[in-house]
Amino acid sequence: MIEVAEQDGVAVLRLAHGKVNAMSMEFCEALTARFAEISSARAVVMTATGRTFSAGVDLVRLLEGGAPYVRKFLPVLSEMFATVFSHPAPVVAAINGHAIAGGCVLACAADKRLMARDGGRIGVTELLVGVPFPPAAMEIMRCAAAPQFFADAIFSGTTYTPAEAVARGFVHDVVEPQALLERAVAAAKALAALPPKAFALTKRQIRAPALERMQSPELDATIAQIWTAPETLGRVRDYVARTLRKS
């Protein structure tokens, strides 16, 4: 589900869950656990197998489980996002393909984001699906997106080409596909060359306001209420049906 390797002293995590790395509860728990396991690594590169970085939340699984599954899933999803976002060592995302909705959020949780040229599209489509953003997802996107584009990206649900994503802050650089992993490892090593304690503290200072805003039990409850509402699940079902018809 999450493959781990070492390259030039950098931990390389590869998302390898089905065709599109859809985020089920098990996927989220596995990625959170992997980050705990590599806590001593100097730096981390996060990429994926196949042609998709991640298509976001596994909506089919969500519909199968219904409201009881959603109530259990949302905290696990948020924990995964916060774990990657707050990891003390440098994290570089090597976005090898589409990064949609939660997949975009996961990529944006990294300190540096490289995307393969012609590697797909990236964007947050949550409102098109019909669900609000959990606080962790919203704060990660607030930190990543260029301020002048943030609200429009959230409201419109637009997915962007790699070049468009650079202009909007979602991605730092576009790389030829065959050089993506090499460039990501080099970027991770460059960040890892900084004094580790100073880097970790500085990162914590930068992330602190967002991490504090993520802790909102009242908002979490409201979001869970909307996600589990029959009308929301109906919209999700319609969205999945439309998507399957296009594929």
Description of the molecule:
- With 247 residues, the protein is an alpha/beta fold.
- It has a six-stranded mixed sheet. Strands 4-6-8 form a three-stranded parallel sheet.
- The chain has helices spanning 25-37, 59-86, 102-108, 126-129, 135-144, 147-156, 162-167, 180-192, 196-214, 217-228, 230-246, and strands at residues 2-7, 10-15, 44-48, 52-54, 91-95, 98-100, 112-116, 122-123, 173-175.
- The chain starts with a strand and ends with a helix.
- The model has no long low-confidence stretch (mean pLDDT 97).
- 56% of the residues lie in helices and 15% in strands.
- Helix 3 packs across helix 5 (135-144) and helix 5 (135-144) packs across helix 9.
The total tally of domains equals 1
Q: Quote the CATH topology.
A: 2-enoyl-CoA Hydratase, Chain A, domain 1
CATH architecture: Alpha-Beta Complex
* 3D shape: globular
Largest sheet: 6 strands, mixed
Q: Helicity level, as a percent range?
A: 55-70%
What is the count of helical runs?
A: 11
Radius of gyration, whole Å: 17 Å
Helix/strand structural class: alpha/beta
CATH level 1 class label: Alpha Beta
Secondary-structure element series: EEHEEHEEHEEHHHHEHHHH
Low-confidence stretches: none
Average the pLDDT over all residues and give the rounded result. Answer: 97
